[in-house]
Design goal:
heterodimer, A: 2 domains, 4-stranded parallel sheet, 8 strands, about 45% helix, globular, disordered N terminus, B: mainly alpha, Arc Repressor Mutant, subunit A
Chain lengths: ~500, ~110
């Protein structure tokens, strides 16, 4: 396979048009954008073949057959597409790259055509009549390319009259690829690090403790209040599991400080865990359900070991989807949690409860001159709820921001809520070797942001996902939006908090 | 690429596979390939990264890096703007590559 090996800085692409305008197609426009294949040692550490196996064709078909049996939704999604075209202009990667294989229906058909050839009666007998194709090397290359130009954000699914979940198709495609030796380096290396060290970064407990201590010093210096960031505190009531980017990167760490201030002010005894020092679960992205369960199991194990009664998830989009939608199925029931808090909670719903109960106070004048817009992260918006309110995943973060800043502005309604556009870096694409695709995929979000910068002088974009924060910080300058500060929701909450 | 750079084993993004292969000369040549001439200010950062890695087996968080560089070499150096001027592609990634450390992974 031809994979990019250069380390050059990507030039700003010449992006034109608006997200409401369907671009003219350019065949193969992003065919050269390749993410590096996982090295043999990484593949093998996950029990997968190190390189493409000799009998890859038969193995791939056999694996696809297993997935079709095990995942009934996948089979339904293979059968029900009527090629109505409703999804074609809904994908940010198509809008940004103009490559027709990034139309959701076309990307799905890379797999669907193989399904028809090998698993349907008509496709076996009359392949030319039903769009059935043999799986050959060229199609395999397309699988690797275009299943890594989908962030599994599921915006297309919202507009599909049949409700076909494109992300499930992408996940199945990636799972089959990894099983024949073609895993993706970025995601598989991270999954390996979670298993061996406990988090995506590979940060060992000593380093984690050093960071937390340093942050305690910073908060004391800034505020004069001794706010703790405890690690492995047995007997704590609440375990906070957050993306490890929160311990490491900017602006994520400002959100982490915000969580600590809120929980301090509420008088809650809480802790981080060195065992479950990662909320993210990249096995969702790669479709590897066994790894997804093992990664989720760490959270259950850590919670039971520490004896906590509540589990709270920090600002991480897909971690919240896994926690909200799958945690009980994967590793439940969570019978050890308190009856008042029987499921994993989002840090935003915890803070929101404390605010509505009057336990904490937020003073928006402490964020003077800040004009915020809120970017709905796809896995929160379309993959989960929040709190006990209908649409809580949209309302709760906005309610917290409205209480924390003088002015909150929403971007265009066809780019927020359930119709939100992906940041362009989700689903395992937040890797430098896909920088061109990431920059182009951020186009619709950048256009919607530019509109509120022009109309309302927005200064800050807030997200509750580590991927969104890193991605938007990296790519917005390429869309001439470097003046907009991307930050964590709990950064602004923490700054507005009346802390004593 | 120089013969020295070609002689060491790197990953697909140019990070050293074996930290033991690192030398000052290699760091200088890696930087020259990016049109950067390493001076004392760069070396302060590279040395700190290596020292931190020795202790913690990971590169420091950006916040720790800025704080420690500020403490050691003067407050005017303790901010990310200064570090980005030295390493335009990001102190965590670019400086780690010159220092022979692995690239930080994850959502960073």
């Amino acid at each position: 396979m031809k994979l990019s090996n250069d380390n050059t800085v990507v030039d700003t692409p010449q992006v034109v048009g608006r997200y409401r305008v369907i671009p003219l197609i350019q065949e193969g426009a992003s065919a050269a954008s390749q993410t590096a294949k996982a090295t043999a040692d990484i593949q093998e550490s996950l029990g997968l073949p190190g390189t493409l196996v000799d009998d890859w064709h038969d193995k791939a078909i056999a694996r696809l057959g297993q997935l079709l049996k095990a995942r009934r939704g996948l089979r339904v999604f293979m059968d029900t597409c009527t090629k109505c075209g409703a999804c074609t202009d809904k994908c940010h990667y198509f809008l940004g790259t103009h490559d027709p294989k990034n139309m959701p229906v076309a990307r799905q058909d890379l797999l669907r055509s193989v399904y028809r050839r090998y698993f349907t009666w008509a496709g076996r007998l009359f392949p030319w009549l039903v769009g059935a194709r043999n799986l050959d090397k060229s199609l395999l290359q397309d699988w690797y390319t275009y299943f890594h130009q989908c962030s599994e954000c599921r915006r297309c699914t919202v507009f599909c009259p049949k409700g076909i979940d494109t992300s499930e198709v992408t996940m199945a495609g990636r799972e089959v690829l990894a099983s024949i030796g073609l895993g993706q380096q970025y995601s598989q290396e991270i999954i390996g690090k979670v298993h061996s060290i406990g988090n995506n970064l590979g940060m060992k407990p000593r380093a984690l403790a050093d960071v937390l201590q340093s942050l305690e010093e910073d908060i004391l210096e800034d505020t004069g209040v001794a706010v703790r960031l405890p690690l492995d505190d047995e007997g704590a009531d609440m375990l906070v599991v957050t993306p490890s980017a929160d311990f490491f990167a900017e602006p994520h760490v400002d959100g982490l400080i915000g969580y600590a201030k809120v929980l301090h002010q509420a008088g809650i005894r809480w802790t981080f865990s060195s065992e479950a020092s990662e909320a993210a679960n990249f096995a969702l992205f790669t479709g590897q359900h066994d790894h997804m369960r093992d990664i989720a199991l760490r959270i259950r194990h850590a919670a039971m070991g520490l004896g906590v009664k509540r589990i709270v998830i920090g600002e991480c989009g897909h971690a919240w989807r896994v926690a909200y939608s799958f945690l009980d199925t994967l590793v439940g029931p969570m019978e050890f949690l308190s009856p008042e808090h029987p499921r994993a909670e989002h840090i935003c719903e915890v803070t929101h409860q404390l605010l509505t109960q009057g336990i904490i106070q937020l003073d928006p004048s402490r964020n003077a001159d800040v004009v915020v817009t809120y970017h709905d992260s796809c896995n929160v918006a379309r993959g989960a709820g929040m709190g006990d309110i209908d649409g809580g995943q949209f309302k709760i973060p906005r309610a917290l921001l409205a209480a924390s800043v003088p002015k909150l502005v929403d971007m265009s309604a066809d780019t927020t809520g359930q119709a939100t556009f992906c940041c362009g870096g989700g689903g395992g694409l937040l890797t430098d070797d896909l920088m061109d695709v990431r920059i182009k995929g951020a186009l619709p979000r950048a256009q919607a942001l530019q509109a509120v910068v022009s109309s309302d002088q927005v200064t800050h974009l807030v997200a509750i996902c580590a991927i969104c924060k890193t991605q938007l910080t990296s790519v917005l300058p390429h869309h001439n939006l470097s003046d907009v500060q991307v930050t964590s929701l709990h950064h602004l909450v923490g700054d507005a908090l009346v802390l004593t | 690429m120089s013969a020295l750079i070609d002689s060491v084993d790197t990953d697909h993004e140019g990070y050293l596979k074996n930290r033991g292969d690192w030398t000052r000369e290699l760091a200088l040549e890696l930087a020259v390939a990016d049109d950067i001439v390493l001076d004392d200010a760069h070396w302060e950062v590279i040395s700190f990264l290596q020292e931190y890695y020795e202790n913690y087996e990971i590169a420091p968080a950006i916040r720790i890096l800025t704080k420690q560089i500020g403490k050691r070499y003067g407050q005017e150096k303790g901010n990310s703007k200064y570090l980005y001027e030295l390493f335009p592609r990001g102190p965590a990634k670019q400086a780690c590559r010159y220092a022979g450390l692995p690239k930080p992974t994850g959502c960073v």
